[in-house]
Amino acid sequence: MTDTRSPAAAPGLDPSDPYLRVAQTFPVLSDEMSARVAAFGTAEDLPDGAMLFERGQRSVDFFLCLAGGIEILDEDDCGQFHVVHTHVPGQFTGELDLFNDRKILVTGRALPGSRVARIRRDDFRRMIAAEPDIGEIIMRAFILRRVGLMLHGQGGVTLVGPGHSASSVRIETFLTRNGYPHRRIDTESDVDARGFLDCFELTDADLPVVVAQGHPLRNPSNAELADALGLSVAIDEAQLHDLLVVGAGPAGLAAAVYGASEGLDTVVIEAIAPGGQAGTSSKIENYLGFPTGISGQALAGRAQVQAQKFGAQLLVSRGAAALDCQSDAFRVALDDGRSVRARSIVVATGARYRKLDLPDYDRLEGNGIYYAATAMEAGLCAGTDVVVVGGGNSAGQAAMFLSRHVRHVHILVRGEGLAATMSRYLIERIEASDRITLHPYCQVTEVAGGKHLERLRWRERSGKEQELAVGGLFVMIGAEPNTDWLGDCVELDAQGFVVTGNGASPFCSSRPGIFAVGDVRSGSIKRVASGVGEGSVVVSTIHRYLEMRQREAEGLPA
């Protein structure tokens, strides 16, 4: 962030950089709005250099600058501070972590003559609800500030490792999809990488490494990384929540937003990152209300903030391992050994793409074989040919996005074409592109490479085989439901999807109190919009179920 008093002075910034949108990213509240905000807190005069908050703290307060200024500081890998923005009177501190209990990313320091209005955490939430016009300004600013931090790699970590390493790809995917700022040093191509490694006394055997505030984490798992960065939050295992949503794809996030906004004590657990399969989409263009399209990550990020604004708790990098449904107080065991208890459960764990059954396939996963086409994968494949396997909208969106970054995209489908499985607008774009070729009646027969995928072969219906040097294979075929953790608590169909329609709602499972929405539900339409609709509608049924259980507990007729 540059000082907002002269943002245009910073050279070389992207025109879409939110730091240039000063009026929205760093708005100055009017005197009337400032007075309304200040009424929720207390005024304080601060000594020069006083720390209002420091990176790594949780649940910090919200500050409105009344006089003087507040410097926002970023700490680099060597422990040096850099001023990334200076708040002037009428501006306020904070970004998205004020809506949750994660560790904050930056430090705030008072300038000489500073006077602030301090709004405590609970009062901040009350102010957001009570002053919706101000809340809208704050919410927009917080979202843009996080986008800016990510764009500039500020307030985050440094990922050091070979770009084509599966572990490097896994870590960067986790950071990106969870909206955590980072910068990457590719040891395969960055001439400064060796000096960085020597500085921290690291060897190639340690890679990939995440350097967080000067402390190297050697090839951490997603859960270890989430804990180290403060993405995970504490949970009271004894507390009985109204609603537990398992899975934070579009359907799960919609259930969380509507559940929390309607007063239910709501917890969401997510094994990887918000968004599900939709979160990996480069652009969704047929979702209502976004005529120019929106990336799956942006849509998921907004929905996550929306749920947290209403009070929902979100636990990331924590997957469901087992379900105990022997009583009305359900207990879900997490893969870290903890558990969550709830009166009702929404199963929104979605589905995962199937894998190809080929020799060497597992070894090359993440090393050239991918299940998402984002800017990261496109960068790794730049200037090469790539192959997309699949004929659905996800495959079409991936092909269109990749065609802007790679030499050529080859789409392989087992059938005669795309008409039966892909939206017409995508088919027309693919047909019009001279950088995309469709190969019908084909299937991949071989993948090969050293440290990463280098070539593959496919067979045509005639029996003829083609071999191609490639930089990436994007597999987007079919779906397998994520239902192993359910055990025998609910009925599943032959493919493992949750059977619903057993009660007053099409989302009721065979076990009262357990509901299923989105891709994990048997017979569901695999679309973002339908998942969001199911997640929002199911909450009314949950209310009726909880009311019925309450009446039964009080000895009243249902």
From TrEMBL:
Residues 25-145 form the Cyclic nucleotide-binding domain. CDD domains: CAP_ED (cd00038). Keywords: Flavoprotein, Oxidoreductase. PROSITE patterns: CNMP_BINDING_3 (PS50042). InterPro entries: cNMP-bd_dom, cNMP-bd_dom_sf, FAD/NAD-bd_sf, FAD/NAD-binding_dom, Ferredoxin-NADP_redctase_2, RmlC-like_jellyroll. It comes from the Bacteria. Pfam families: cNMP_binding, Pyr_redox_2. This is Thioredoxin reductase. It comes from Sphingomonas rustica.
